[in-house]
């Protein structure tokens, strides 16, 4: 029994320190979202990932399907699966990100939400 626990702990530790093959930045908007898919090699070099092209897609079901298709093309081209991607998003307004997050999680992608303190403090100051 203790052996099984130690195996699970080691598995969890390896997942925490995992390097992903692709990092996806996703900016959430009311009408559309913008994503940048950055390969690990370029992610390590700031000059490389700042030149990365972005994908704009609408926040409706058709737009999200288009985005999933693009991710699928990357997966096929590199022989990867969803666990090789790390998706970081800034959920503008909260509910605008719900659909895309639900779909990506259902597809098996790893997602993390971030909050920019400068954006939050600006919004809080201006919105009261």
Keywords:
single chain, 128 residues, alpha/beta, Nucleotidyltransferase, domain 5, 5-stranded mixed beta sheet, 6 helices
What can you see in these coordinates?
This protein has 128 residues and is α/β, with parallel strands linked by helices. It has one domain: 2-Layer Sandwich (Nucleotidyltransferase, domain 5), CATH 3.30.420. Helices cover 48% and strands 22% of the residues. The chain is built from six helices and five strands; from the N terminus they run αββααβαβαβα. It has helices at residues 2-16, 40-43, 46-49, 61-78, 98-107, 117-127, and strands spanning 22-27, 32-39, 55-58, 85-90, 110-113. The protein has a five-stranded mixed β-sheet with strand order 3-2-1-4-5. The longest helix has 18 residues, at 61-78. It is globular. The termini are far apart. The mean pLDDT is 80.
Mean pLDDT: 80
Number of domains: 1
Cα distance spanning the termini:
55 Å
Structural class based on helices, strands and sheet pairing: alpha/beta
* Radius of gyration, in angstroms, nearest whole number: 17 Å
């Amino acid at each position: 029994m203790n052996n099984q626990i130690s195996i699970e702990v080691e598995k969890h530790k390896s997942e925490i320190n995992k390097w992903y093959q692709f990092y996806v930045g996703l900016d959430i908007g009311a009408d559309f979202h913008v994503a940048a898919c950055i390969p690990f090699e370029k992610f390590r070099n700031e000059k490389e990932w700042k030149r990365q092209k972005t994908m704009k897609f609408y926040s409706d079901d058709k737009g999200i399907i288009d985005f999933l298709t693009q991710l699928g093309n990357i997966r096929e081209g590199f022989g990867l699966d969803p666990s090789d991607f790390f998706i970081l998003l800034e959920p503008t307004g909260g509910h605008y990100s719900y659909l895309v997050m639900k779909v990506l999680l259902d597809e098996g992608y790893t997602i993390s939400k971030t909050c920019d303190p400068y954006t939050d403090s600006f919004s809080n100051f201006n919105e009261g």
